Amino acid sequence: MSSAIHAERLARVRAELAARGLDGFVVPISDEHMSEYVGDYAQRMAWLTGFGGSAGTAAVLPEKAAVFVDGRYTVQVRDQVDGTLFDYVGVPQSSVAEWLGANISAGQKVGYDPWLHGIDWARSLERALAAKGAILVAVDANPVDAAWDEQPAPSAAVVTVHDAALAGQGAVEKREIIADWLKAKGLDTTVMTALDSIAWTFNIRGEDVSHTPVGLAFALLHADATADLFIAPEKLTDAVRAHLGNSVRIHDRDAFEAALANLSGKNIAVDPDRAVAAIFTALEGAGAKIARHRDPAVLPKAIKNDTELNGTRAAHVRDGVAVSRFLKWMEAVAPTETLDELGAAAKLREFRDASGALRDLSFDTISAAGPNGALPHYKVDETTNRAIETGTLYLVDSGGQYDDGTTDITRTIAIGTPTPEMRRRFTQVLKGHIALATARFPKGTRGSQLDILARQYLWADGVDYAHGTGHGVGTYLAVHEGPQRIAKPAGGQAGTEEPLHAGMILSNEPGYYKAGAFGIRIENLVVVTPQSIAGAEEEMLGFETITFAPIAQNLVEVALLSKADADWLDAYHAEVLAKLGADMEGEERAWLEAACAPLDRTPAALAA
User: Fold this and answer.
1) So what's the pLDDT on residue 228?
2) Was domain 160-301 assigned CATH 3.40.50.720?
3) Of 94, 461, 565, 601, which alpha carbon lies 20 to 30 A from 106's?
4) Cα–Cα separations (whole angstroms), residue 321 to 567, 569, 584
5) Which of 76-80, 158-162, 545-549 shows the lowest per-residue confidence on average (mean pLDDT)?
6) Spatial CB neighbours of 514, under 8 Å, sequence gap ≥ 6
7) What is the mean pLDDT of the chain?
8) Domain 303-595 belongs to what architecture?
9) Whole-number Cα distances in Å, 340 to 144, 198, 348, 425, 555
């Protein structure tokens, strides 16, 4: 899309701000539920700036504007956003508050939509602006929406029942557990706004957000185990209404704000990390007593039961067959140099669709050739689409949504003969992946305490990667799920993170990215599992790998592997063959056997 279009849109937003007596406005990638991925109607930053990433913010002033992104998008933002219209600002090195503070004047008014930002963010920005003599103003209607002529409407797709046979626990039982939590805390009600929490709690799924099977809704859950669900009535079939039962009162989604005004005098639990500022303002205005607590569905949703784990294991075998067929196809087609990133992504989707069980992708496939692979969150489109050429690396990060599980896998492929540098970096990433996969750690350990295991071999060469090593994953829900994570401590406060619990699913995805040249990532999903260790004096945990597809052996520098590393890779490939082989026949089976053959350890002695 041309910069002229975005210049015109920016001018329209500025005119709308001036008409409202505002000097500035903040535009996040967010919705009323503070979702990571948002529906098309909420893609305000993309419409205004052209930025296609999943995390970022824009700020508009009369003479200046800026986009704020983290290290994942440093290159992408420059490719997609016109630098003559918007300053590029990196976070956390800087922030919206710092940039506004440097560019605002006393007496000016900056607007924000209180349905798109958290309460702590709003209050922090309010203080920062006040220090400059400026004012933060909560708007009643979003000015970007007024300037956006063809803004899509929110999805009208119906929701469906997620059967207890897949969930492993009934919705009534889940509400009773939350009710017991409320009573133990002396609370009357909890406000639930996170779409995946609502989907999990009520055992429903939807199609309102791309790649995440959720429906647009709010909920109030009460200490008597009843609930009020705020959702467009036309989204509910008779089957869903029967599933929800008489203890769940149905209201239009637009009635949610008014319902908050009826909670005067009640003790209300609200999660400041998931509930927008407008909810706090409404409750405070109603005279409710607000207690800050994490959404009570977050932790039980993250700790999968046996039914969920067995389902996701089955989904990963099904998905692994599709990915392996794709890898075989790539090995044959890519060297002909007739393939591009979009074509490869489409073919991978075909292999997943062939299972007959795919509901959706779990995110937009990262199909990245050559230098595009150096962009960890690259998103291919018609303007960035690159040919897959001999002598390069191809990185593909993809996943599927199935009724019984959510997958996320990354493989890196050498097109032709890899260079020694490519092999060295790939092997360092592999060694880090193995170190994390085989880790054993005491109960109570946090992901930040394990992160160094995946980075150590890269650090030894003075290199690193700018993203986390692991994120939580749902079961037929969000591919990025908290509270668990494996990453460097956020703000240096490891003690504030959630310890890893048995039953949690995480990704294991170290990588390496050489700007302008290539990217490498190896990603499997793992389940936190109890470990039985002879003589152990602590309750110990470890990881079970549940993703199965071959790892490119022609990228492995065997001399850099320890014997334990090589043994792990051989054992992993033996398991890949055992789990996938029955579903692959003929040439496919022969290819899989070759891809999973034990390492050739003869070219060089293994490291000690």
Assistant:
1) 98
2) no
3) 94
4) 23, 19, 7
5) 76-80
6) 374, 425
7) 95
8) Alpha-Beta Complex (3.90)
9) 36, 39, 13, 24, 21
